[in-house]
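#onboarding

Welcome to the new folks! Below is a worked example of what a typical request in this channel looks like: someone posts a single protein sequence, and someone else replies with the predicted structure as tokens. Don't worry about understanding the tokens yet, we'll cover that in week two.

Example request:
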Amino acid sequence: MFISKVSVTPAEAANMVKIAMESGSSDKIEEQIINPDNGKTVIILSYEDYFMRTDSKIGITIVIDDLLEETTVRAISAGGGRGAIFKLGFGANGDYEKKVEKALSSVSTGVPEACVQDLTADGTTKTDVTAGWGGTWEVTAHADRLQVDHKKKNKTMMFPYDKIWAVSSKGDSLTIKTEDGTEETLIFDDEGECLAWLALVQKMKKQ
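Example response:
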């Protein structure tokens, strides 16, 4: 899932998303604009696209609203799994959501505070995660980096904030991409905790 505040109105954000999605191969499925009596706006956009890597179509729903004063955008993709048992998506869902993130990159201001708990990057904020390298790891937020240590083996991974090119979340999984092409995924206990860490990394990247 991609979620972010943006510094433009819902209509302006929707227009930016539509230009990005409709200039490619995505097919629009639905567009609805809801204006409640309180003067707020909710815009729902739905698209689908074919991804060769999964040999199937993936759908995405984008919800844009200003119900809490600031404009918030959420993009949730679904489908695209390949395989009878594991339904592997090979990263296609994340890439589809990335189109929305890229379209709004110039106006995005980070994860809404109302969605996450505030975490401090001072070396005391830490939690256990499951990582793509196997086993249980402990991730710690320092002032200049994320540090990921294996709980049993003498292994450490460092992710300096100024070297992180992109960070995104989907459910309980946080994916970090660095400037040198490294991509790693950390799996948290639940989506709320994952969003909190996403907000922290986005905040530290901007400092």
